[in-house]
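Example 3.2
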Amino acid sequence: MLRRLAPAVLTVLVVALGVAGLAVRPPQGTPQRTADFVVLAGVAGLRWEDVDPQHTPTLWRMAQQGAIGSLSVRSAHRPTCPVDGWLTLGAGSFAAWNGSRPDGGCPAGGVAVEQPDGIGANLPDQESVVQYNQQRLPWNTMPGSLSESVRCSVAVGPGAAVAAARPFGRVDRYASALPDDPRLLLGSCVLSIVDLGTVTGADPATRAREAREADAQLARVMAARPPRSLVLVAGISDTAAPSRLHVVVADGPGWERGWLTSASTGRDGYLQLVDLAPTALAALGRPMPERLFLGRPAISTGDRPDDLADAVNAPADADREAAAQRTVSGGFFTVLAVVQVLLALAVLPLLRRARPHAGPTGPTPAPARLVAVVEVLLVAAALTVPAALLADAVPWWRGEHPGWIFAGVTALLVAAGTAAVRFAPGWAGTLGSLGAVAGLTTLVVGLDVLTGARLQLNGVVGYSALQGGRYSGLSTVGLGVLLAGALLSGGWLAQRVPRGWRPAVVVAVGGVAVVVVGSPYLGADPVGAIALTAGLSVAAVISGGGWLTISRLAWASMAALAVAVGFAVVDLRRPPAERGSLGRFLSAVGDGTGGFTVHRSSTENFETLVNSPLTVLALAGGLLVWFALLQPWGGLMRLFGIYPAVRAALAGTAVAAVLGGVLDGAALDVAGAAAALVVPMAALASLRVLGHAADRTRPGVGRLRDDAGSGDGPGAADDADPGPGGDAGSGGVGPAGGGPTGGGGPLGAVHPRPISGPPASPPRPQVSPPAERSPDVEDGPEPTAAVVPPRQVTRSSTEVAAP
């Protein structure tokens, strides 16, 4: 009774742990009022490599005594032009200036600023800009939200006027340049926005000169700053493609010697451009607008190096890594897709020739050495993604040829991992290499997540801070390989226990993965956790064998729905500014603006689908499975019949990967990453199970046939006597209806059939009766008598413990 209740109890426990892991958030400092005045000073194009004590002494002193970080300047346009950056700064959400642009460039001409009264200014184009952002762009952004949240604001320079203009185009107080004495102007309103100029070009001398000029203007601002004020200096935009990380410095009470971070990034030392507007309002103690900013208020955290040169080197090095990652990542996934497609083509003829045939007819078996080489290559292909993740522990981006260095490091790690799997115990077994690869992949990705996901940030198989989509937790690729590795590991372990305990094992292993993926402390991907729960539920209900019935599917769906609803309820009970992505989406649905989120997600899905190399991996893997591995000669159906827990793991992986990609706006990227691991291992296991198709087993002495086929008795898994290569009984039974694949039917239903065996007498050498041939073996010469010892088996010939 307890054995039957255990899977249900464990499932309820995993749902509770999943909701708790998703709901509990890391403690963060609550932004408090720290200033009576805020000055936002922007320098378009300013990067950390432009900052040093000689050319920018004022900014260097600010960084010494204040908090610093890397700024991602994502806006509604790529790249973020200066006018887009200023507009996004004032909106607190992703925005873009309307008008014609050259391909990949910025709008020609400056911004029209009218000064009818000598006090403020008007932007005649503001009305069309508001309509463009509200009606044409998917972010539902309201330009001028920052200035609408304070009584009055000051703008100095045309860029600052774009940020300070209210939605109807009015700038409260405006000056085209800093006056001789800026004290009166900067102290006239609680919020001042200053355009310090632009640093552009690739020539170091030109950049140094422009940075020096901007620093001289900053020195005047610092000399005239109002008392008890917060000064924020930011490189608010790019000046040309491609995008880069930029400078952000905060100087004022409560911002001493720390790293800048926010809830929108979740990582120390990183801010988004959209975080600056809520940071200014939080510092002033002003309420956030009714239409919430996309950004979150910044805070200062400790643990910054005492030496400013060392501290500044960290964001500068992150910028170099992110820039190198952009150039290397696309090539890596393209090469990986090509290699896996070629490897799939090489496996096809081996699958055709893998199954032994009796008699003179049938294809000639492939050379054993060729099969061994292909098996090793399949393992290497499956380990490529985790090896590429580990390669980011080496600073390859600092070299003169970063792409080649990364390729060399990754190749060495792939070779080391492949050798470890090849010489590990169980390599000769059907599932030995599958379990080793799955476990190794889960270990690598899991340890990275548990230690802060440092290898994912700006990593080749991770996420880039330049994209502005994610700064902490699991990447899209990381989610794909982690869910595939965790479910395959659970299926491999479940195959080694009695059938009644298999759902419990799958749920236990997968439940840990759900918490790791969804916890804000770790993977920080609630959508991925919900998708993984759905896949885990499917895997659990069919891990003991049988069909995926309507009732089982309903049970699996309810488990996933329970996690989603539980997390949604907890998330909606939080204050609006503290809600996660699911809570914000449900709130938007409630106030009628959820369509913008759905539109963004569908747009991102389509763009990713047509542009990502991972789409090729997903499609190629699906084609190989459907048109080759699942065919009667492909071996996968036979594998499913013999190892139902592995079948369950593969089915759960497919469900979780597709759901995770679609719900997260990543299209087939999650499925492609999972396929990079799963498809080579499925092909390898299919080759192995076909190679053992002619192996025979005998029922146990003195045991009833029904008991031998149930797989539920004590020691049913441990006492199984595997045949050569670990395939106990892999060739004893054909499918229902009789077919060439064997294995008990297309979805693993067990069809035990008695095979003649030795009498229940004390073991002694004896003459065996003629072996009963599988129905798919042609009639041939009668076998000669041979002296064989009796063999003890306690499992049906259609289901065995994993070797």
